[in-house]
Design a protein that fits this description.
Elements: H1 7-18, H2 23-30, H3 34-46, E1 50-53, E2 59-62, H4 64-81, H5 84-109, E3 110-111, E4 122-123, H6 129-154, H7 163-175, H8 190-205
Antiparallel strand pairs: 1-2, 3-4
């Protein structure tokens, strides 16, 4: 049975996994109306769990107390739903492919120097279509591996439900020639989604990234 998360948890967790976001994106990630998200963010700010920053880039972020509050909500959810073991297994499967994926991202950003193949790699200018095609092929294999992990998580917690489709969309865009969707920040690129899923798993299980 798929369990939905509480509205409070969804808002706090949106700030946790996205880092610094505006209200409309919080509402989108938390799957609620902007008005509801605004009200909940204001309440979190009053409780000292979130703060809003104005400026050229305005948005919301968690405070240290808010981060602890979110982790307590997540721990309670896991115990109430009774899916801790399932999430742990999915996390272990994610880690099995994590280093390979990070290496794949490096191979996308750098490539062997055509003038000195045995020397230091150079920035990939994406002029070598054959090289890029081979890396994209490896990404497709990675996608085949991560999709069952996403499905297993989505089967127990609703808030994991979007990852499979988001990965597939990013891969489709890359395969269609929009290469930014591999590693570019600030968009829903494959790397952005992967990093977010990793953070989601760490937060859900109460694991510090530095102690992983």
């Amino acid at each position: 049975m798929i369990s939905p998360s509480s509205a409070d948890l969804r808002v706090v967790h949106a700030l946790r996994v996205r880092g610094f976001v505006d209200t409309p994106l919080v509402a989108e990630v938390a799957d609620m109306a902007v008005e509801e998200a605004t009200s909940m963010l204001t309440a979190l700010e009053a409780a000292g769990h979130a703060r809003h920053r104005e400026g050229r880039m305005s948005g919301w972020m968690l405070t240290s107390d808010g981060r602890a509050h979110g982790e307590a909500l997540l721990a309670t959810e896991l115990d109430q739903v009774g899916c801790r073991d399932e999430v742990k297994v999915a996390y272990s499967r994610f880690l099995e492919g994590n280093q390979a994926f990070l290496g794949l991202c490096t191979d996308w950003q750098l490539r062997p120097d055509p003038a000195d193949p045995s020397g230091e790699p150079v920035v990939n200018d994406h002029a070598d279509a054959g090289y890029d095609s081979a890396v994209i092929g490896r990404l497709a294999e990675t996608n085949s591996g991560i999709q069952p992990v996403c499905a297993a998580l989505a089967a127990v917690l609703e808030r994991f439900g979007s990852y499979g489709d988001r990965f597939a969309t990013a891969l489709d865009r890359i395969s269609g020639g929009d290469l930014d969707w591999f590693t570019k920040p600030m968009i829903d690129s494959y790397h952005t989604i992967w990093f977010e899923l990793h953070e989601n798993l760490l937060a859900t299980l109460g694991i510090q990234r530095s102690k992983e």
